[in-house]
Amino acid sequence: MGNLQEEIDLKKTIEISARRFEESPYIERTQTSNMVRGVYAGRYFPMKIDEDPSEKYWLLRQKALIFDVPEKPIEISGKDSVSFLNKVLTREISTTKKGRGYYALACTPQGGIFMDGVLFRFSENKFWYVQADGPFEDWLLAHSSNYDINIKDPKSRVLQIQGPASIEIMNAASNGKIDENMSYFSSDFFDIGGQELYVSRTGFTNELGFEIFSDGFKTDHLALWDHLIECGKPYGMQFSASRAMTIRRIEGGILGNLTDIDTTMTPFEAGLGYFVNMDKDFIGKDALVHKDKRSCLFGITCKTAIPSAKSKIKFNGMNIGYITAGVPSPTLQKGIGYVRFYNPDDWEGKEVEILLPDNSTHKGIIVDLPFYDKEKKIVKGIDRSIPSKPNNIFFDAK
C-alpha cells in the first residue's frame, strides 16, 4: 500500500493505537491541536499542521524549512558486511568510501524493487542504510544466514533542514565547521550544539539541504531541536509538515517507495538502471538479465487540473497507464505527476488524456524527469539564486 500524501489523503484519517508505531522524540516541540500524522517505516511523522502549504513551499524555495522525517537508518556491521551488502544491494559496495552517501536499491529475486535508500559507510565494516518505507530490517535478517554480520536499529531519528539558507544555518549550528565546501552527498560527524552527530548533504526536496541523524538514546533530542531552531531564526527557517516536501520532491523527480516504485517494477522500468551493476552477483540479477531495459515511469504535466493517484491515462482511446502521485507545481504553475505505463515505449512528448477519479478528462503532456533543474544545479549548490513567487497563482499548494 502506498504512503500517499495528496491533499485528499490528509482528510482520510482514522484512530490507531498510539503505541503501535514509533513516536517522534521531537513531538513535544511539533505537536499541534489538529496535527494529522502518517506512518512510514513504522514511525509517525507529521503530514499536516496549522500552516498554509503554499506559504511553506515558498519558504522552502526562498529560505529554509526544518522537517521531522521518518526515514529509518539500519546499521549493518561485521567482517562480512561488504559481501552481505553486495549480495542484497544492486550497486558495488566494495568501492564505497567513508564520508559519502550512495543511493542504493534492493531487489526481490524476481527483479522488482523492494527498497531504495542511501548507504553511508562509517568504517571498513560498518554501514548505515537509511531506508524508505517498508520492512527492510526484516528483509536483511531473512537473508543474513551464513554471513558474520550484525543488523540492528540504532534508534536514530532524522531531521532535514532544506532550502537555500540551509548552509548558513548549518554553519551556525556547527560553530562554523559546516560550510559550502561540504559537497552534495558527503557526510561526517560534527559538533552540533555540543552533541556529536552525523550530518549529510542530502535530503528529499532537491533543494540545497542537510540531514542530521541523532545518536539514539544518547542524544538530547529536544536540546538539539531548540539549538537548530535558534540557529535558523535569523534566516527565517520554520518547521513544516510534509506537504511542501512532497510537492518539491515530485517536482525534483524523487520517487517514493511503495507509492511510485514497488516490487512489481524493475529498476529499469523505474528509470533507475544506472544504480544496477550487472557485473556482480546480487539478489534479483538472474531475473533482471532477461528484463526490458526501457523505462515505464515518466512525468506528466497538465494545465487544467492536478493529476491524482489512480487517475487513468489514455492514448488513442486505450488505457495505457495510471498516475502514481500528483501535486500542483507552484513553480511551473501546472499540475504535475508521475505516470506508470503498462508497457515501455517512446512516450516522452506525447499528448495523452487524463481521466480523474471524478470522471473529468484533461489533456496531459508526457515529460522526462525531473520536471525542472535537470542538471541538479540547485541541490548541488551551483545555482544559489532565489526564485520569485509568481504574481498570479494558478494552483495553490493545498
Q: Tell me the major beta sheet.
A: 6 strands, mixed
Taking all Cα atoms into account, the compactness measure Rg is 21 Å
Overall structural domain count: 2
Question: How far is the first residue's CA from the last residue's CA?
Answer: 23 Å
Helix content: 10-25%
- Count of helical segments? 8
The portion of residues forming beta strands comes to: 25-35%
Low-confidence stretches: none
CATH class descriptor of the largest domain: Alpha Beta
What is the CATH architecture annotation of the largest domain?
Answer: 2-Layer Sandwich
Q: Output the CATH homologous superfamily of the largest domain.
A: Probable tRNA modification gtpase trme, domain 1
Give the strand line-up of the largest sheet.
10-11-12-9-3-13
Describe this structure in words.
It contains eight helices and 19 strands. Helix 2 crosses helix 7 and helix 5 (166-173) crosses helix 6. The chain is an alpha+beta fold. It has two domains: 1-290, 2-Layer Sandwich (Gyrase A, domain 2); 294-378, Aminomethyltransferase beta-barrel domains (Elongation Factor Tu (Ef-tu), domain 3, Beta Barrel), CATH 2.40.30. It is 16% helix and 29% strand. It has a six-stranded mixed β-sheet with strand order 10-11-12-9-3-13. It has a six-stranded antiparallel β-barrel with strand order 14-17-16-15-18-19. A hairpin with a 2-residue loop joins strand 1 (36-40) and strand 2. The model has no long low-confidence stretch (mean pLDDT 94). The radius of gyration is 21 Å and the shape is globular. It starts with 26 loop residues before the first helix and ends in a 31-residue tail after the last strand. It has helices at residues 27-30, 53-62, 81-88, 136-142, 166-173, 221-232, 243-251, 285-288; strands at residues 36-40, 43-48, 65-69, 72-77, 101-107, 113-123, 126-131, 150-152, 158-162, 187-192, 195-200, 209-213, 238-239, 297-302, 312-315, 318-329, 334-341, 351-355, 361-367.
